[in-house]
TrEMBL record:
Record PROSITE patterns: PROTEIN_KINASE_DOM, PROTEIN_KINASE_TYR
Reaction it catalyzes: L-threonyl-[protein] + ATP = O-phospho-L-threonyl-[protein] + ADP + H(+); L-seryl-[protein] + ATP = O-phospho-L-seryl-[protein] + ADP + H(+)
Name of the molecule in the record: EKC/KEOPS complex subunit BUD32
EC code: 2.7.11.1
Biased composition (Pro residues): 13-32
Subunit comment: Component of the EKC/KEOPS complex composed of at least BUD32, CGI121, GON7, KAE1 and PCC1; the whole complex dimerizes.
Keyword Iron: no
Amino acid sequence: MASETLVSDPAAVSPPPLRPYEAPPRGPVRPPPKGDGVPWVIMNHPPNVKIFFRSGFGVVYQSREHPERLCKVPLPLKSYLAMHETERRIFTRLGEHGGHPNLVRVTGMDDHGIWMERALYGCLRVFYDQNGGPSAVPVPLATRLQWCEDVARVLSFVHSHGVRHADLSGRNLLVDADMRILLCDFSGSAIDDQKAAISAEAGYRYPSETDEDRFPSMRSELHALGSTLYEIVAAQEVHAGQAKEVVEQLIKDGKYPDVADLALSTVIQKCWRGEYTSADEVANAIAECREAGATRV
């Protein structure tokens, strides 16, 4: 990616019209595979809704009467139901501590699932793909640097209350109508001494021979943060276009994307090398960069 100039006033840049996320047409949700001790039953979805999208461990429905409201319903498998209960527990705890402006807003929980406000532009990864990608990044650099700091801040908030996300990347960040970045999806995350049920994807997962990504350790979380900062700034995934197995081997061999001409290059590299001890430390480094109007720290 070519070197970019930091624009101090985001309003001075007129971005092209952006496409809001629209759910693709889908057929009926198929039953999950048999096993795991839970037989297939009809999805326990709320009335008067339509399928918005299928997430990894459930289905997100959109209210027909209030399209700004979404309900995340777990697939009826024992492990998925357990992960859903963990997500409820996490959102309850984070809400009791005042929430965070860069955390997806949960409006309620009921017997069907978790109700959330819809983020107009959907997940960051799809937002980039649908609005230009790395060849024509749809938002100015100043906004992307703000997003980087915001993600580090909300991750620090999450960590401070005994939660580790375990799967941080552009697919678990949302962009709302006000162009704020929001952290979402805690199904499979770790809380207190309970290990995560998932791990980060290739390119984001810390290359360890142990299972520290399944706690996950702070080193693992900050490694994923570094890759997420890369995705935010570069508008593409780590080693984009490569097969999962190839990406895993590259990271295991210590081969990361070239960030020499990328904003926040030093911060990203220090996350990958494990030179930070907390997400707050990363956020402060980004803030210093933004305040100085620099892009290479």
